[in-house]
User: Which sequence fits this backbone?
């Protein structure tokens, strides 16, 4: 797993006002969860957002002044409109202690099924595992070279890890492209639906004429005798 260095300051106070003040100073409020208790900190925005949004998983050496510890990013919260990073939860990665991790998945190779006209469908971008962070890879490579049409790679096919996702969950698969025979019935149904709507409009017009009413979009002219009287 890749490592990174990050500096942080202990927050003297907590709560909404303290967090708001941190953000005004271009910092991100955060919490470090560990066996020795939780620590409320603030971290400079730019170096933190680069780590959080990276496709790789980092083991972070966190410098909190007089105290240093190793952490991993457990969760991150973003503003619903601006998508700006608002808060981060760190989990202390004690030496030799297991933790739950989301390892990025990287698809490599060219599927034989795709080369034969199939469509590649990626269902999972990260795999949930449990292990010692320092021993975990920064990403999981999945080779799809031998994946043919109708084939798939599931969580159960990944070996050497304690996986937390369902073993039957599909990571990636190759499906057949839609054929003309599959598309034709859909087109026929759409055409039938359109004809049905036109027929219904025609029926409404006929009923209106039978009752002596005129359609809304065109009024009938009065008889010639009535026009002379006018």
Assistant:
């Amino acid at each position: 797993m890749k490592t990174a260095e990050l500096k942080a300051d202990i927050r003297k106070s907590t709560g909404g006002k303290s967090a708001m003040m941190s953000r005004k100073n271009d910092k991100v409020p955060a919490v470090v969860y560990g066996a020795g208790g939780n620590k409320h900190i603030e971290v400079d925005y730019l170096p933190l957002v680069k780590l959080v949004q990276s496709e790789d998983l980092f083991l972070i050496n966190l410098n909190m002044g007089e105290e240093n510890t190793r952490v991993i990013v457990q969760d991150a919260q973003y503003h619903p409109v601006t998508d700006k990073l608002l808060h981060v939860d760190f989990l202390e990665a004690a030496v030799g202690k297991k933790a739950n991790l989301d390892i990025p998945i990287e698809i490599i190779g060219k599927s034989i099924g795709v080369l034969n006209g199939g469509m590649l469908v990626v269902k999972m971008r990260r795999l949930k595992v449990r292990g010692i962070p320092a021993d975990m890879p920064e990403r999981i490579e999945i080779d799809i070279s031998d994946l043919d049409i109708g084939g798939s790679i599931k969580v159960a096919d990944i070996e050497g890890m304690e996986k937390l996702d369902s073993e039957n969950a599909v990571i990636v698969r190759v499906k057949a492209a839609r054929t003309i025979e599959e598309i034709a019935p859909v087109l026929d149904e759409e055409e039938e639906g359109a004809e049905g709507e036109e027929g219904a409009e025609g029926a409404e017009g006929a009923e209106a004429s039978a009752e002596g009413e005129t359609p809304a979009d065109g009024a009938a002219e009065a008889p010639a005798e009535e026009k002379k009287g006018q």
User: Anything to note?
Assistant: The CA atoms of residues 28 and 165 lie 30 Å apart. Residues 180-210 form the longest helix (31 residues).
